[in-house]
Specification:
15 helices; single chain; hpI Integrase, Chain A; mainly alpha; three-stranded antiparallel beta sheet
């Protein structure tokens, strides 16, 4: 096989030679082969290599294909290129109701016996998993490695007439509580002060710019540009899409404060390669990973939820479930509630379709609820 980017060479699973897929029943036998892969693992690595410039996408895609390959090996004793439509139907059923032993925390984190799940997949997660795997199968068919895509036969569900709405966001009151919780963090020691300043900046950055964890981790001070008196952040987003997001003067003041605390110039210099979020040690040359950003946000949400649990258990439960992506949804929802033009929100979130952005419009739902409740009061 040809050279594969290092990020895709190591998959956390090893298959026996008999399950390599070299003789898989779904292997293509034509002459239009576009790749040199001889085994399923080689073919999957090549597919993943197509996403090496999008770390977040790469991690998500790798997770799904590893799940499928481990399941096929352990449950069926068959390679990826042997799987039929019946097998994939069984796999979909397994995803929404995995056996308890597959979710056990006693299982190792790597290898063929690794733990694949912490809980059953939701409807949205199942849809995403199937979409990713179907894309992989289609790629391998187009490459001449497989004869057919067993997921291509999947029945297309009719689109629901009910417009979906996003639920993973914090309302204004709960968001203000999170900000107040951060401001009340202890600051007696240097370590506590470091944590406070990092959390103060991180949450404001993710919320104000609606950034994904990977986008925030990759961003540098040099990505901030001043044009016609306004600051913008250049973002290399999902799928390698580049865009610019408006940065408020208030957020730039927060940025200056964070930089000054670490002894750095308040505003970015020419070709400033320092990360927007410094490493935990405060190093200006080391960047955080998207996973680190995610874990820091989850930790603070958990701490805030524990403090809130005694007198507002429902709100505490919401915070326990919240993550970095919730801040992105929260930003979009608050922009929509404030009356920002939907086209501008679409551009800020880098959505390809305005239909995707429209799920953040909750104001009309609120009005309908209020008018309905009021009318019932009158009828009594």
């Amino acid at each position: 096989m040809g050279t594969t980017p290092p990020q895709t060479r190591s998959l956390p699973v090893t298959l026996s030679a008999s399950l390599s897929g070299a003789q898989g029943r779904n292997r293509a036998s034509g002459t239009h082969v576009q790749i040199t892969a001889q085994t399923d693992m080689e073919a999957v690595r090549l597919w993943l290599a197509e996403y090496v410039q999008s770390p977040h996408t790469l991690r998500s895609y790798r997770k799904e294909v590893v799940r499928l390959m481990v399941w096929a090996n352990r449950r069926l004793g068959r390679p990826l290129s042997d799987l039929t439509r019946e097998d994939l139907l069984a796999y979909e059923a397994f995803l929404v109701q995995p056996d308890a032993e597959w979710c056990s925390t006693a299982l190792p984190r790597h290898g063929i016996e690794r733990r694949l799940f912490s809980k059953p997949l939701s409807e949205n997660s199942l849809r995403q998993a199937v979409c990713i795997l179907s894309g992989m199968f289609s790629y391998l068919v187009d490459a001449g490695y497989l004869a057919g895509n067993p997921l291509a036969l999947r029945r297309r569900r009719s689109a629901s007439l009910r417009k979906p709405s996003v639920e993973r966001y914090l309302d204004q009151e709960l968001w203000q509580y999170v900000l107040e919780f951060i401001d009340q963090l202890p600051k007696a020691t240097r370590r506590e002060q470091n944590y406070y300043e990092r959390m103060r900046w991180l949450f404001r950055l993710l919320y104000n710019l609606a950034l994904r964890a990977s986008e925030a981790a990759q961003a540098t001070a040099g990505d901030l540009v001043l044009r016609r008196g306004h600051w913008w952040l250049r973002v290399n987003g999902k799928g390698g899409v580049e865009a610019e997001v408006p940065v408020s003067d208030e957020l730039m003041h927060d940025f200056a404060r964070y930089r000054q605390y670490h002894g750095l110039p308040s505003y970015p210099e020419v070709h400033d390669k320092r990360p927007l979020i410094l490493s935990i040690t405060g190093s200006s040359t080391e960047s955080l990973t998207a996973t680190s950003v995610y874990l820091m946000v989850k930790k603070l949400f958990t701490q805030a939820a524990q403090q809130l649990a005694a007198h507002k258990p429902h709100a505490a439960d919401t915070l326990m479930r919240a993550s970095t992506h919730w801040l992105r949804h929260t930003s979009a929802t608050h922009q929509a509630d404030a009356g920002n033009d939907l086209r501008h929100i679409q551009q800020n979130l880098r959505h390809a379709s305005i239909e995707t952005t429209s799920i953040y419009l909750h104001v009309e739902q609120d009005k309908r609820h209020q008018s309905t409740v009021d009318s019932m009061k009158i009828s009594k």
